[in-house]
Design goal:
- With 397 residues, this protein is α/β, with parallel strands linked by helices.
- It folds into two domains: 2-198 and 373-396, Rossmann fold, CATH 3.40.50; 203-370, Rossmann fold.
- It is built from 14 helices and 14 strands.
- The strands form three sheets. Strands 2-1-3-4-7-8 form a six-stranded parallel beta sheet, with helices on both faces.
- The longest helix has 24 residues, at 373-396.
- The radius of gyration is 22 Å and the shape is globular.
- It starts with a strand and ends with a helix.
Amino acid sequence: MRILICHNYYKNRGGEDEVFDYEKELLKQNGYEVIEYSKRSRDINSIYKNLGILINSFFSVKTYREINKIIKDKKPDIAHIHNIFPIISPSIFIVLKRNNIPIVQTIHNYRFYCSNGLSMKGGEICNRCENLSFKSIFNICNKDKKLYDLLLSLIIYFMRKFKVSDKINYFIAPSMFIKNKLVKCGIDKNKVILKRNSIRANRESIGTEKLNSKYFTYIGRISEEKGIIGLIKAFKEIKDIELKVIGGGPLKRPIEEFIKKEKISNIKMIGFIVGEKKSTIISNSIANIIPSVCYENCPLVLIECLKEGVPVVANNIGALSEYIKDGYNGYIYDFNDLNSLEEIILRLYNMGDVELCKLRDNCKNSFYTIFDERENFMVIDDLYKLLWKKYAEERND
């Protein structure tokens, strides 16, 4: 079976890009013929290219022609789309439908109704655009990119107004939370398939041995929506417990300056790291903290931590509580309640070896129960076979 996979890579590589690359290789390893169509936002490196993207964001003639050629030359059986903004554009849905190619769309964020994809405005949760309204176009979220935000809001409005979703056969949602959001926005619940993100792991390589180190980690984008500011404040008060911050982002330098100014010695800014070094820091930590103040969906860092047998402490918002059972494989604290967060940190720090090892073993079990690679792949595999059979019968007719 030939699968056309489509994705617009972000300027700064993130979880969506990781999931796309991972699933691409997974399909190949399981015998699928993969046809990749991708664009990269980092290629938009001049004012002229920016202007061109703005003009083509509604309907990219280039995308239409390129996809049309791929269909004629390579004859894909199914198209699986991830991100279409800003270069690919909604024109991809038109050309695929006109050629009778079934479409699967993975939903990674909230951009189906929200221009910034976070359901946030001014640092707070915003759900104003869930209901289809022309007024929502002017609910500008990105103050630094007002024109782009307005344009994207227009595109999203017209996609919903003219029911572009009807051209999509199935949506893949990595969490029940985002599935419910899609249904609330008018998507038929029978068209939304639940499939968790997953990563490769060797079951025998994961241990839950006694820890020799005593620190916590934060791993991810260092930005406002990730709740990093509140986390820094919490560890500033705790003082004697170390936090290792891994990642980069717009708040990295301001936080480094704040740490230096306040002479905070228990917070270490590691920077962006990958591979074995990252895995070692994760696996040797007491727990990883996800303090996001936005609606998290199915973050890879959570999956990575459970794979390593590391408990996760998470803010009670979005889909995080779907994966973390309080006291079993981590702890959930009240939304943005720093006192509650500090209590959990102290509880874990003072936890006995036997209890902590049990917690770590539960994390490993959670990983194989919720994020098992084979089971999650079978969801895609079954969906592809269902669509292939249906459309093969229609083509024969």
